[in-house]
């Protein structure tokens, strides 16, 4: 379907899922999770984001692309480049949190916490920027803080839905539907 015919139903389903009286259903359908995975065709990403910003003007839109740039800036380009070359085959060592070091993953979680603390509905957008970092949407959705918040996290997921129901993140990488309510 095209954006013009598809988006109305998706945004109606999102509004129903996010209604205060339905929020307990998110946890039930999400196996205890507290996230809504909003799936749309990758080619229409900006249209869906623009529509969400119109429909949810008081929400906090957390841009993963900007978080990635902020993370690289915090390290410094030269150090990041060296780090990346050293761990090229193990990107999780660069981007995912470890016991002794906070990385891109915790930067994203902190932005979500800030939105929640400001009583804003958090939308995670441009999640395609996570590709190659070994951070997957499910890692964020399974974060203990995200799971206990009183406000759900909405994760925008550019993915194709296969005939068997499987999600393909960015059209080719299998994606998890666990710990979230799926809006497709």
Fraction of residues in helices? 40-55%
What is the averaged pLDDT score?
91
Distance between the termini: 12 Å
DSSP helix count? 9
Order of helices and strands: HHEHEHHHHEHHEEEE
Strand segment count: 7
What Rg do the Cα atoms give? 16 Å
| Low-pLDDT ranges | none
Overview of this structure, please?
This protein is an alpha/beta fold and 184 residues long. 46% of the residues lie in helices and 17% in strands. Strands 1, 2, 3, 4, 5, 6 and 7 form a seven-stranded mixed sheet that branches. The radius of gyration is 16 Å and the shape is globular. The model has no long low-confidence stretch (mean pLDDT 91).
Short description:
The protein has 184 residues and is an alpha/beta fold.
Key terms:
alpha/beta, 184 residues, globular
Describe the SSE topology.
Elements (H helix, E strand, L loop, with lengths): L2 H16 L4 H7 L5 E6 L4 H11 L4 E4 H12 L1 H10 L5 H4 L8 H14 L4 E4 L11 H5 L2 H5 L4 E9 L5 E3 L3 E3 L5 E3 L1
Parallel strand pairs: 1-4, 1-7, 2-3, 3-4
Antiparallel strand pairs: 4-5, 5-6
């Amino acid at each position: 379907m095209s954006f013009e015919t598809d988006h109305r139903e998706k945004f109606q389903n999102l509004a129903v899922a996010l209604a205060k009286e339905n929020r307990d259903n998110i946890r039930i359908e999400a196996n205890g999770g507290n996230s809504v995975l909003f799936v749309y065709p990758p080619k229409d990403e900006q249209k869906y984001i623009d529509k969400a910003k119109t429909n949810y003007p008081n929400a906090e839109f957390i841009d993963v692309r900007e978080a990635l740039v902020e993370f690289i800036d915090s390290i410094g380009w030269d150090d990041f480049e060296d780090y990346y070359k050293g761990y090229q085959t193990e990107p999780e060592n660069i981007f995912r949190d470890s016991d002794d070091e906070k990385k891109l993953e915790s930067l994203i979680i902190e932005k979500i916490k800030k939105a929640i603390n400001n009583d804003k509905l958090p939308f995670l957008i441009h999640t395609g920027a996570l590709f190659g970092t070994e951070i997957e949407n499910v890692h964020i959705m399974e974060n203990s803080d995200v799971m206990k918040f009183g406000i759900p996290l909405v994760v925008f997921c550019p993915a194709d839905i296969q005939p068997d129901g499987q999600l393909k993140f960015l059209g080719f990488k299998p994606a998890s539907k666990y710990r979230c309510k799926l809006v497709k």
